[in-house]
Design goal:
The complex is a heterodimer of chains A (253) and B (305). Chain A is mainly alpha-helical. Chain A contains ten helices and two strands, in the order ααββαααααααα. Chain A has one domain. In chain A, 77% of the residues lie in helices and 2% in strands. In chain A, a hairpin with a 2-residue loop joins strand 1 and strand 2. Chain B has two domains: 218 residues, P-loop containing nucleotide triphosphate hydrolases (Rossmann fold, 3-Layer(aba) Sandwich), CATH 3.40.50; 79 residues, Alpha-Beta Plaits. In chain B, strands 6-7-8-3-9-10 form a six-stranded mixed sheet, with helices on both faces. Chain B has a four-stranded antiparallel sheet with strand order 2-1-4-5. The chains are: A mainly alpha (253), B alpha/beta (305). At the A-B interface, helix 1 and helix 4 of A face helix 2 and helix 3 of B.
Chain lengths: 253, 305
């Protein structure tokens, strides 16, 4: 393993974050603060509690997941798409490094940004509502696994995309609706029985449920099932990345 | 002597069925400058991209420094530097950051003295901390060369290195390429400028429709395929063309008589021609000779095949 090469890609990608600090960090933090104002204060005054948790506190894990999911995909997809677009990808492809090292560099950087963002949003939330984290280790684990998994998914989108429109289409038309419908702002148990069943098809439900459990000890689905769902998505993404580098799909042909 | 680059029966067929390369066999010797000539779409860049790992091959075998480019890609690629055809740079990076990135990507430890010297050799010292987007096209081209050399490769590919570069800068680049060769780097360059190949290359390969149609030492090629012309300026224009000169392939151009012959032939007929001219009372004022250029040879070969 050429760790120096991994570090080089990682630091290059992280440097881009500092250059675009407003877009990468400040913007999601401000958006999340607005969510607290709108959902936490306006709607929270009508829905006081869910499962014994104040509404403002209840939405914190969902809001973190919402930003972490979208930013992981956005950062990782842009990270690999941009060199493809400008042509500088030739340098990465012709370097004496394996695809694992390439993925570690790009996905590692995107996941790091998302993780830092998640922590920042958590800290911002602490300014608005009282926070309780019953299972801090599991909270970190969920945050880390989600950041890595969805950065890997974003990396796949970046390789698949052959234009800026394609780069946006999956995050905008699939991921964001799934996240909003995945229980970010409500408990699945509040839905009619038919919609509860339909919601179980949405993988984001499991992520938010597991993450919320790490805060308040309450979940819509079992924690083991949530972890299994992340593992399934992660392994699927890893296998797809391996297939892409083995065949050269959208990269080497 | 072991070849630095060895290509055997290489084929590349793209997804749509287009055969970009067919049965390519090529050996590049250490320390030489090899020029690969070919018209647009001949397969030059595809060949380079396969060797560098940017494009997958369909069949055949390529090894660099004795290392197979697929099975031993780490060892093979670490020997290669590539300056691509397009000026692909990350506009927001500085010159210093981008050459360090290139070196790091190849897993080499930091070496600021080497990189400083490299930038100095390429006349980029005063641009070290400039962003790439502020540089001119010629400077960007030199940054691309610096990036390709940042990890100290033994085999350097220059894919049309002087495309879009002004004459003065082109000559400067030729000088740099020669210096690189003197430092022990083997160079493979593709170019549209035949004079570039004529000026710099030791050997020349011509590729057309994905097939290598010729590989020759430059001087041997020019000797083998080159024709020579003798232009004789006559004192007076010929009114009647003498019978005795009919067997010669002569052309009249005003008061100039042009004789074209094969420079390889022992008996090229020149002395006989002069005897017959004297005998016919034709007086010569001056004479010039001209060899066919590599460009003429190239155009002739590509047209034939």
């Amino acid at each position: 393993m050429k760790m120096r090469a991994v570090k080089t890609i990682y630091l290059f990608e992280m440097a881009r974050t500092w250059r675009t600090i407003w877009q990468s960090v400040a913007s999601p933090v401000i958006s999340t603060s607005l969510y607290f104002v709108v959902f936490g204060s306006a709607i929270g005054s009508r829905i006081t509690e869910i499962d014994g948790i104040s509404y403002g506190s209840f939405i914190v894990p969902g809001l973190i997941m919402l930003s972490v999911l979208t930013q992981s995909i956005s950062n990782a997809s842009f990270g690999i798409y941009f060199p493809k677009f400008t042509g500088t990808i030739y340098e990465v492809l012709s370097a004496p490094i394996s695809y694992v090292e390439i993925v570690l560099g790009y996905v590692g950087a995107a996941a790091s940004k998302s993780f830092i963002l998640g922590v920042l949003i958590l800290a911002t939330a602490g300014l608005f509502v009282p926070l309780e984290i019953q299972h801090p280790f599991m909270m970190v684990m969920f945050l880390l696994l989600t950041s890595v998994t969805f950065s890997l998914f974003g990396f796949l989108i970046g390789i698949w995309a052959d234009g800026f429109e394609k780069l946006q289409i999956i995050p905008l038309l699939i991921v964001t609706p799934l996240t909003f419908l995945g229980g970010s702002f409500y408990s699945i148990k509040m839905l009619p029985p038919l919609w509860q069943k339909i919601s179980m098809v949405n993988p984001v439900v499991y992520l938010i449920s597991g993450f919320r459990w790490s805060f308040y000890g309450q979940a819509d689905v079992g924690v083991d099932i949530s972890l299994a769902m992340i593992a399934v998505i992660l392994i699927t993404c890893m296998l797809t990345v391996r297939w892409i580098f083995n065949t050269g799909y959208q990269l080497k042909n | 002597m072991q070849s630095i680059l060895s290509i055997t029966d290489l084929n590349k067929t793209f997804a749509g069925g287009f055969k970009a390369l067919q049965d390519i066999n090529l050996e590049i010797h250490p320390g030489e400058i090899f020029a690969l000539l070919g018209p647009n779409g001949a397969g030059k860049t595809t060949l380079i991209n396969i060797i560098c790992g940017i494009t997958n091959l369909t069949s055949g075998s390529v090894s660099v420094g004795g290392h197979h480019i697929v099975n031993e890609y780490r060892q093979a690629r670490s020997l290669i530097g590539l300056v691509p055809q397009e000026l692909t740079t990350d506009a927001f990076e500085t010159v210093w950051d981008t050459v360090n990135f290139s070196r790091g990507l190849f897993g080499k430890p930091n070496n600021p003295p080497y990189l400083k010297e490299l930038l100095q050799d390429l006349s980029l010292s005063d641009k070290t901390h400039n962003k790439l987007m502020t540089l001119s096209g010629g400077m960007k081209r030199r940054v691309m060369i610096a990036k390709a050399l940042a990890h100290e490769p033994r085999l350097l590919f220059l894919d049309e290195p002087t495309a879009g570069v002004d004459v003065e800068l082109r000559k400067g680049m030729w000088e740099q390429v020669r210096e690189l060769r003197e430092s022990g780097v083997t160079i493979v360059l593709t170019t549209h400028y035949i004079d570039e190949a004529e000026e710099m290359a030791d050997r020349i390969g011509i590729i057309n429709h994905g097939k290598i149609i010729l590989i020759e030492n430059k001087f041997d090629l020019m000797k083998k395929l080159g024709t020579k012309h003798v232009a004789l300026d006559l004192k007076e224009p010929l009114v009647n063309f003498p019978e005795s000169l009919a067997t010669y392939n002569l052309k009249m151009n005003g008061s100039q008589l042009i004789y074209t012959y094969d420079s390889q032939k022992e008996d090229n007929g020149i002395s006989e021609l002069f005897e017959k001219l004297i005998h016919a009372g034709i007086q010569v004022k001056d004479l010039h000779t001209k060899e066919s250029s590599l460009e003429e040879i190239f155009v002739e070969l590509v047209r034939k095949r």
